[in-house]
histidine kinase (Robertmurraya mangrovi), 231 residues
Amino acid sequence: TEELLQKSEKLAVVGELAAGLAHEIRNPLTTLKGFTQLIEYEQGRANREYIRLMLSELDRIEMITNEFMAVAKPQAVKYQEEDLISLVKQTVNFYIPQTLLKNIHINEDYNTKYSRIICDGNQLKQVFINLIKNAIEAMPKGGSLYISVQNTETNYLQVKIRDTGVGVSKEILPRLGEPFYTLKEKGTGLGLMVSYRIIESHQGTIQFESVENEGTTVIITLPILKPMLVK
Ligand code: ADP
Ligand code: MG
């Protein structure tokens, strides 16, 4: 629990700083990128390689600041009644073309009595996008993606996303969700941090189980819609 507490404290600080910082970085970045593109256009042949590097680094900063702003900026959060299965399905469908290309087989199992919850549907979809994307990226040689939604014995819904991918070691497992923690060459290390924030703001939890070279299971637990709370 101490670890969990530390993690959420860190997240709160990061969240406060991030919006302002990302915003401050974005304006000069836009100017730099514009002029670099102009130089590429006007005298690209002379310094093509340098300019290409500059643009690719600028793109990277841009990607990180954009991703950060999307999380940290206090956006209008809209909580309403939604069907969790439908949110999960929409996300899975979005990834079908990619999984076909990458030889990933999808197994879906929706077995619930109740699947309605009060949530910000777009935020939860963002979480499922982040997690399914990670699962797909963990299976570069193909594999299986298992998606399920179930009720627990208590008043919770559980979404499980399991892959048969590379997995992570025990040592690394506790670091998942730390801002900027990534093992990917082109990763930002923000997807899981964002997901933690969103699920925490929905009074839910995220757990990871992983075995190296066998796969990873992510379990999201969310409180169901309690009938007496509905207006
Ligand atoms: P990114 O995907 O940009 O690296 P994330 O926050 O989404 O950032 O994930 C952080 C790290 O956690 C990843 O770089 C990867 O090493 C590890 N990870 C996350 N999900 C999985 C998974 N399903 N299988 C294996 N490793 C994972
Ligand atoms: Mg990711």
